[in-house]
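User: Can you recover a sequence for this backbone? Please restate the input before giving your answer.

Assistant: Of course. Working from this structure:
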């Protein structure tokens, strides 16, 4: 999860990005049990906002875990840890700094054995963290982090929703690029966009239905001078430590060509500029979900991309939405994000309290009720919002207004 919940499209809760960045001093890598050199196993996976959910077993207890190359170690939720009989000493903690810059200590311990399919990983480090903040409505028990992912090779088949694992690198035709290990045992590559080379972290735990590549605003702003953008103001992300601070994010309206050296990735991508990004660039889960198959040859530090999925992410300028984000803060539903260029919201300040949604009291909803309500809507439904100050806005499901970046 990189702890990273990106909130760029309504409903707010649907656009979660899970992005926690780890600060630690001693790294203990897990080791897999011996396996025949030519063996590989296959496991199924589910998806949540383009992220991958896989099953792992600890102490005989099965759980559902986010596959997260952007998180150094694993995570267990308190509920799963209790079910699996995994006990954490509150005195044994490491600090975690999330994507919003909030730094907190979390209990950490070594788990002797973690099984994925027929493979067993030994001596893997796990944190104890509440994952309900980023997965409030899904049965997610934790995270499989990159310290486990990086010791084995993975072949993801998005069309069949299966992942093969092997100690031997996979061979496959397709677009190949190399990676390198960076700080905190994370994986990076060098991408080129608008003739600028940027150091990019690969983050399968950064989940979002539409965001594929994020760039640090201060680094990349000058590259897109005069480009058509959708500007969003307010809270852009949520992490395990809570909501981030209000910032401005720019979504490049059209898809962009991204290169590795002089080779362009086969599929153009949605690119956004984020103010508080930890790295110059981040490649997110939705980037890889455009392809039929993705190989992560961890032992060779290389990726292979093959084919195109039947469904590819639309460009930001083609996505219908309502242009605002609503979230419950301390029991009160508030406007926490809006499109700057939406005239219907121009006079509504951020954090204005919401009273009714389509004439229904929103106070009667929890986050999961709200998510289900929004998911049931169609692209032709309008959304009526009544604020506590008496202001009423009726928002059509429409593509966002754009402006030119200066």
């Amino acid at each position: 999860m990189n702890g990273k919940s990106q909130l760029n499209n309504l409903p707010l809760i649907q656009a979660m990005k899970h992005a926690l960045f780890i600060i630690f001093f001693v790294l203990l890598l897990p080791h897999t049990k011996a396996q025949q050199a030519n063996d590989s196993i296959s496991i199924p996976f589910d998806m949540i906002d383009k992220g991958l959910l896989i099953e792992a077993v600890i102490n005989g207890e099965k759980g559902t875990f986010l596959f997260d190359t952007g998180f150094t170690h694993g995570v267990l939720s308190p509920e799963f840890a209790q079910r699996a009989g995994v006990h954490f000493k509150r005195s044994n903690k490491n600090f975690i700094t999330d994507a919003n810059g909030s730094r907190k200590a979390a209990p950490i311990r070594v788990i002797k054995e973690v099984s994925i399919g027929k493979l067993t990983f030994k001596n893997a480090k796990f944190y104890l963290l509440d994952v309900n903040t980023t997965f409030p409505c899904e049965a997610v028990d934790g995270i499989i982090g990159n310290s486990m992912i990086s010791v084995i090779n993975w072949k993801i088949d998005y069309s069949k929703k299966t992942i093969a694992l092997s100690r031997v690198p996979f061979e496959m035709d397709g677009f190949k690029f190399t990676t390198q290990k960076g700080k905190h045992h994370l994986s990076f590559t060098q991408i080129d966009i608008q003739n600028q080379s940027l150091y990019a972290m690969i983050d399968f735990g950064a989940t979002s239905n539409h965001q594929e590549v994020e760039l640090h605003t201060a680094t990349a702003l000058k590259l897109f001078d005069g480009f058509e953008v959708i500007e969003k103001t307010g809270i852009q992300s949520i992490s395990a430590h809570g909501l981030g601070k209000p910032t401005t994010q720019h979504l490049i309206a059209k898809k962009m060509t991204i290169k590795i050296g002089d080779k362009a990735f086969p599929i153009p991508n949605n690119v956004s500029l984020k103010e508080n990004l930890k790295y110059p660039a981040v490649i997110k889960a939705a980037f890889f979900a455009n392809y039929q198959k993705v190989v992560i040859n961890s032992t060779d530090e290389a990726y292979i991309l093959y084919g195109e999925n039947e469904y590819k992410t639309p460009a930001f300028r083609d996505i219908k939405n309502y242009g605002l984000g609503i979230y419950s803060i301390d029991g009160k539903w508030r406007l926490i994000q809006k499109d700057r260029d939406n005239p219907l919201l121009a006079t509504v300040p951020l954090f204005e309290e919401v009273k009714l949604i389509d004439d229904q009291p929103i106070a009667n909803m929890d986050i999961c009720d709200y998510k289900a309500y929004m998911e049931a809507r169609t692209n032709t439904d309008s959304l009526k919002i009544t604020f506590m100050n008496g202001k009423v806005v009726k928002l059509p499901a429409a593509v966002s207004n754009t402006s030119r970046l200066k």
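That completes the design. The two ends are 33 Å apart (CA to CA).
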